[in-house]
## 1
Amino acid sequence: MLLDSDLAALYGVATKALNQAVRRNQRRFPPDFLVQLTTEEWLALRSQSVTLETGRGRYRKYLPLAFTEHGAIMAATVLSSERAIDMSIYVVRAFLRLRQLVASNTDLTRKLAVLERSLSTLDADTRKQFQTVYRAIRALTTPKTPKRRAIGFTANIES
């Protein structure tokens, strides 16, 4: 869940503008996309930050909204900032790519399972060779964790 103020900062708009866009497009935000925090929930969140002051006009006038991941994507579609538009396009492309990867790996996994079942009719040496091939294919189809850069500044010093 993301608070409206955090989501507004991500999309480069004011919290007030985000909430106004949501109110104008309420039909796009069913209960599983968006929740308005209760007073108790908001006070519990505020108590997590020791530096917050209380008083008239200091902070929020209304209780914050909390967006699920689907609500955050939908919010990008109702906002008109450049950043929100870029983010919505990025998210759609990421989901399409993920769907393509899952579909291709599922199909390949199914075909491998069929081939493995037919392996039982072959002699022992041929079975070992096929098992090696299957292991290599599985290694290629399992997602690899990307290498992460080291945190901080690094310099290449040449001698």
## 2
Amino acid sequence: MSATQATAVAEIAQRILLIRGQRVMLDSDIAALYGVSTKRLNEQVKRNRARFPDAFLFRLTLKELAILRSHFATLRLGHGEHRKYPPNAFTEHGALMLASVLNSPRAIELSVLVIQAFVQMRQFVQSHAEISSRINELEKRLGTHDAAIANLIKAIRQLASPPAKPSRPIGFTAPIE
């Protein structure tokens, strides 16, 4: 992968969101990547609805849209605003299917980068899950060792400190006969 492709994949990966436990891209983001309008993209999806089962595509609820709006202040609803309806969210497979539906050279070219971005995100999440499980395993092991190490250090400190000498009284004392 060239440096420009790696940069493009990184930029695409930033547009991948986690919604309903799935990594998805919004219709407006994919439309911008593929160089078509969001309206045209959604028209093609409607015309080819059989190619987009629920596992490939779902429409965001108003609650999900409100959460997105709180994160990205540019998403608005209403007459004359940016969006009239909640956006469609495309999974990895849905994004790939879009390239075949749109059938433009740019869509085909970028579909490879989109898939690479999804794969990169999956690998990133899996590597963090592995690291997290290893850390949890170490914490479990060290939990029993911590007490043993603390007891060992306490015993070493007791051996290292000299015993307390009896203190001599201050002042004159008469010998006892």
## 3
Amino acid sequence: MKNFGKTMFVVIIALTLFMAAAPVSASANFIRPVSPGVAPGNWEWTTGVDGSEIPMDLVTTNPPAWRLLLTNGLNVAGGAKICHPFRGGQFGWTGEIYMLNGDSWEKLTTNVDWVPTTEGRLMACAQASAAGIYALFGFYVQTEVICVKPPVSPQFIFGRTVNYCIFD
């Protein structure tokens, strides 16, 4: 009985190691929009133009190089000013609105600004010149911090020397 218990223990350990080393299947799907914290919310466009948001997994065209899809797509029936909330613009993200033209994405002039004023929301906006599918893509640019020694006598805060830093 003692040998049977040892044998079963060895078999269970061997099966566990075998199953842990088994390869996991992977699938390559169209990239889903990144974290909703970068571009939360829904598309907004000028009134009088029909439009609706569409899931981007229906669009099989590859995104522009070095760009991540940040939102669902917007399908508008005509020219309109289109905007999407873009909170990530405050944290080093650059947002660009593109129009799907056949098999490629064409970049539109995109303005990232507070709408309607600094009391409002940060929005990425562009002028859609024609009916079509539009999407907000973006990329992250890490802010470089340059610290220099103080030009005059150093300042001491809580017993530490404070250097002046410039964010570029």
